Amino acid sequence: MENFNYIRPAKVADAAKAMKKAKDGKFMSGGMTLLPTMKQGLASPSDIIDLSGLKNSGVKVGSKSVTIQAGTIHADVAGSKDLKKAIPGLAKLAGGIGDPHVRHKGTIGGSVANNDPAADYPSACLALGATIHTSDRKLAADKFFTGMFSTALKDTEIVTAVEFPIPKKCGYAKFPNPASLYAMVGVFVAQLADGSVRVAVTGAGAGVFRVPEMEAALSKKFAASSLDGIAVKSKNLNSDMHASAEYRAHLITVMAKRAVDAAK
Amino acid sequence: MSETGTGIGARVKRKEDQRFITGKGNYTDDINLPKQTYAYFVRSPHAHATIKSINTAKAKKMPGVVGVFTGEDVANDKLGGLICGWMIHSKDGSPMKAGPHPVLAQGKVRYVGDHVALVVAETKELAKAAAAAVSVTYAVLPHVVDVADAMKAKAPVHDVAPDNRVFNWSIGDEAATDAAFKNAAHVTKIDLVNNRLIPNAMEPRAAIGSYDTGTESYTLYTTSQNPHVARLVISAFHGLAPEHKLRVIAPDVGGGFGSKIFIYAEEVACVWASKHIGGRPIKWTAERSESFLADAHGRDHVTHAELATDANGIITGFKVHTKAAMGAYLSTFASCVPTYLYATLLSGQYAIPNIYAEVDAIYTNTAPVDAYRGAGRPEATYVVERIVETAARELKIDPAEFRRKNFVTAFPHQTPVIMCYDAGDYAAALDKALEMSEYSSFGERKSAAAKKGKLRGIGLSAYIEACGIAPSAAIGSLGAGVGLWESAEVRVNPVGTVEILTGSHSHGQGHETTFAQLVSDRLGVDINNVSIVHGDTDKVQFGMGTYGSRSGAVGMTAISKALDKIEAKAKKVAAAVMEASADDVEFKNGTFTVKGTDKKMAFGEVALSAYVAHKFNSAEIEPGLKEGAFHDPSNFVFPAGVHICEVEIDADTGVTEVVSYTAVDDFGNIINPMIVEGQVHGGIVQGIGQALAEGCVYDKDSGQLLTGSYMDYQMPRAADVPNFKLAFTCTPCPSNPLGMKGCGEAGAIASPAAVMNAVTDALGLRDVAMPATPQTVWKAMQPMKKAAE
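The joint structure predicted for all components is written out below.
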């Protein structure tokens, strides 16, 4: 690991300023991806701007939506009694991220801003039609996630909260990579308040994506059997030693059905 | 024998665990010496390349750098290369083709991770930074990573073996076996791959090498399972220093599984280089990624086997051909693993009249392969138990009954492949395992599973293994470079406390507890008044270390023999003090009594008498109470048992879950059932890991290790295994006075075959490759699904 400057601002504006000044700065929330990457020498930022000083943590359940502050650790999302009532599928997703260490350090803001193609949260954001609150603006999830490890965030822009509309029901089913336990395929299925259905897939492609054919079928009838015979084409899916694109395509349908069955 | 108390057979909690689980262990990396420096190794990024040049000038000028060493320095200093300590001859009589293995690469690199240069600096970070500044120019050569392809490789790994074949060895009677096949009513054929594994001890390898310029002697602290052997090799073969000028200390060691038997380049380099930096100690602790790259790997066999049976389902012949990967260099005991530790066990638990096996040992551009928990015996068990299961299925005989009708039932039993089984009751273990696993009602569980979309399968593995390799004269005649006896010294202190100095080495086995139990049992001493000293060549007489499940049967027998001498001497002392004849003195529960009188002395009183020497004539009885013994066993010991595994496979995803696992083992007499159960648990989990999770993958095209971290190399986890059902049967071992066999490897030996027999049973397939990961199983199911459609 190379040496770096460490800054821990207390205000969002100061964090943005620090980033502007840095030669090659990185925002760090829980550091669950950044630190291992730095240890392996795959990243060597000049400045680490630690966002934990912002102390923006908490889950607030409103009548129509749930707002989770960016600095909220996964364990607090998973353990929120209010969230378990409002969006149980989201609480369950948070409880299945990484391991206990990760869940007590990693944050929703960090996960969303990093947009790891195998991260869990992006699928929930996209399927639930979440709004990403940043230091500068509010962005629909559909606009926010732009590809592998990339988002619509500008260099100095910081995720401050994620707002999830409360759906009728939703569910998440993950098939973990047997070694790393990251999502090899994760499918989040949501039946929104207006009755429309959104299906978002993580782990299988370059980034999180929706499956219109499945959404259409489930909009007609929200049941696992509606997905019989519907499969995502394997052409653009990830392929590695753990799962070929064909296997991932197959798992997407299996996991989508399980997510529908698990939806509450 | 009682399960309570502290003697033999008691479930004594491990004495050493308090310090281990409270972070007070003393591992190599915990030790820091004055003026210590830190090492980092420059490693080959290529699977196979010629080194055109190495430029260390820039690195030498980097901050904090104390020294940079390359193969040239090693050659100039005439430091000998790494050796393979077991000579194998091919069937044509030619000796194995051992290529040179310098401590730092000379001229060529042969696998990704090969050690090229050693950088020594004031801190590990500075050493690492300077290592990045060492500039090496390579000319890349064609490489080969798969053992199946290696004999056709374009560029041989070593010039001495143009077809990459180290040896072509055989065992058994080929003509007789061929004849048996000619007369066979049925022949079962199978092709198997025994997947390459990476050991993953919890503590990575580490070393501190130092040179005392005053006494002109070296000290090496290292993560070794056998420090005396390390000293012998570094002294006699590397030529670093005579043995009395080299001290090797293996303090607490956090797991070995075989991977810490071997003498590796890094450890030798550190102790050697210390002299060249004015004697400052050099510490090296492997990063986990270095462990993946450069610890000796295990297994990696490709095998074709055929089994002949007569019209009654009796096995009449067995033929095996195995290609065994050696990696890029012959590691310390690599050559004996796929030969004398493998093919000699191909008779399994069965009375097979004719066996012939041929083994090609083959170089590949990969990390060296050597002994890993079980070492040859898991590979043998896998071949035997997979083909026996397959034959039973083909013959439509219940696999349990097929095994039973072919079991060895009379002992001693001489197999056609060297081994002479001394004792066993294989049917007893089978009966017990069938009962505990509720074998007869499996069909009901299969139907119930099918209703929830799960394919349920059951698989057996009736394994035998050979531990405590011996006797030394016999293995010497087979090519071993060392003897495989063990030594012990018992020092009774004047107050009656006891120190045991043993050549065995504990790196997780619990010797501090089990060895103390033996002493407690024999001398009536509280186990807290017994200490075990091991792992330091300056303290302990020469010993052979711990591997191959030998510390009980061999190491404890040596202690037992020394205790015999202690008892005899103490009786003499007691007799003198109590003014009786030594023949009339009896010793029981820690008290010496004189037959027919009420005279008695406690063990501690006798010990004190022995040291003060006031009450006997020192011309007749020497003062003191200290005895030593060396024990060279007359035969191997043969643990055996039956494991039964049930799996459920998710038909939608290919995920295999081990839902039930029964293990019935015959380890002879058991010192501490709790520790033995722990060994069995660990072994089974390692075997389940091999069967379902662990698979070392090198990229065919680039030669890079793809499974170089836990992101891609899947270790078994606690949540992946069920609670195990364990039981023991007991036929005491006749070749040692304690009646003990070995237990450390049995679980890992038995379980891969049990799991894979269950997986293939569930899928109705002849074979599924290990590791049967979800993807592998899903792919295997596709033709079945298509056929069903």
